[in-house]
Specification:
Layout (H helix, E strand, L loop, with lengths): L4 H4 L2 H4 L7 H4 L32 H11 L6 E5 L1 H12 L6 E4 L6 H8 L3 E4 L10 H7 L4 E7 L11 H10 L3 E5 L21 E6 L11 E5 L2 H10 L7 H10 L3 H23 L4 E4 L6 E6 L2 H10 L5 E2 L9 E5 L3 H14 L3
Helix pairs in contact: 5-6
Pfam family, one: Aminotran_1_2
Keywords: Amino-acid biosynthesis, Aminotransferase, Histidine biosynthesis, Pyridoxal phosphate, Transferase
Cofactor: pyridoxal 5'-phosphate
């Protein structure tokens, strides 16, 4: 699939002259930097953060490029994936005119960001098996539909979306298809970043918040054609990833073996937790998961949630979400945390 990205862009973005920061105009090393009105004396910290960071995070992108096998000019780094989602709306969707498609139940930020940007939302619910309703999506698309959001593995259901179905959407839609892979590290499915050369309307979102354990640093990743990445960089704030986050992320990316071991342990614990939860009499179903959490259907989810809160164990009540009625979402914890959770639930059935 090869579409004209420029035709999707809002006119004001086509004409936008991006802000040129001091670090855009001078790149490199110098003995005396008097161009950016920084504090020349340093920082009141053990390390100095008085200089503005690299606005394009090139060292960090280079390391990510080595790990992901994607060229640096196909990588955007944002303040969480939420920044990338927001930029997509601001770049490609005209407020009050255009619309996007989401496939509930799904990650809630797509809808929130659409509402903030005054973009209409078309909802095409997943099937009862939590897969795409391809006919429904095809019927929902009109000439004002600019973006389709697909989360795979999906949040809050945990399952991966059928790959052939996603490719069907990519091949037949003349807008952007966003495949959000925040949980891809826990899945046996291969990432869609391998398909970037085949589909220029594809944007893949990933994050350092989940498997990499860097949620506090707020670093999201978007992978797309260089043309789309250039648009992201044109719109983003000049210094959207701070220096401390860039340094710490680079350090973390050197520890890929540790992260891979955590992923293996998480998957092992997920399988054990699945089995143990199903043995509880009030648990009606535990849905298959390719993520680091399980969606559990129970006969009395609100009571279970409140009971666990009293014990200092916090899970997520998803009962009000479409197709997730009577469900709790449970993150896979450490072996010790999972044992405490299971012990609490086993005691609950005795009450």
């Amino acid at each position: 699939m090869n579409i004209n990205i420029n035709n999707l862009l809002r006119e004001n973005i086509k004409k936008l002259v991006p802000y040129s920061s001091a670090r855009d105009e001078f790149k490199g090393e110098a003995a005396i930097l008097l161009d950016a009105n920084e504090n020349a004396f340093g920082s009141p910290l053990a390390s100095n953060y008085n200089r503005y960071p690299d606005p394009l995070q090139l060292k960090l992108k280079s390391k990510i490029s080595q790990i992901k096998g994607v060229p640096t000019n196909s990588i955007f780094l944002g303040n969480g994936s939420d920044e990338a989602i927001d930029i997509l709306f601001r770049a490609f969707c005209k407020p009050g005119i255009d619309n996007v498609i989401i496939v509930p139940p799904t990650y809630g930020m797509y809808e929130v960001s659409a509402n903030i940007n005054d973009i209409a939302i078309k909802r095409v619910n997943l099937t009862p098996a939590f897969q795409l309703n391809l006919e429904g999506i095809a019927e929902a698309i009109d000439e004002k539909t600019k973006i389709i959001f697909i989360c795979s593995p999906n949040n809050p259901t945990g399952n991966s979306i059928n790959r052939d179905d996603i490719e069907t959407v990519l091949s037949n839609f003349n807008g952007l298809v966003i495949v959000d892979e925040a949980y891809i590290n826990f899945s046996k499915q291969r990432s869609f970043i391998q398909e970037l050369l085949e589909y220029n309307n594809l944007v893949v979102l990933q994050t350092l918040s989940k498997a990499w354990g860097l949620a506090g640093l707020r670093i999201g990743m978007a992978f797309a054609s260089p043309e789309i990445i250039d648009i992201f960089n044109k719109i983003k704030p000049p210094y959207n990833i701070n220096e401390a986050s860039q340094i710490l992320a680079l350090e973390a990316l050197e520890n890929i073996d540790k992260v891979n071991n955590w992923i293996k342990e998480t998957v092992k614990e997920r399988e054990l937790l699945d089995k143990m939860l199903l043995a509880l009499p009030f648990v009606q179903q535990v849905y298959p998961s390719d993520a680091n959490f399980l969606l559990m259907k129970a006969s009395n989810p609100k009571d279970i949630y409140n009971y666990l809160v009293e014990l200092g164990i916090i899970v997520r009540d998803r009962s009000s979400v479409i197709l997730c009625e009577n469900c709790l979402r449970i993150t896979v914890g450490t072996p010790e945390e999972n044992k405490e959770l299971l012990a609490a639930l086993q005691n609950y059935q005795k009450i």
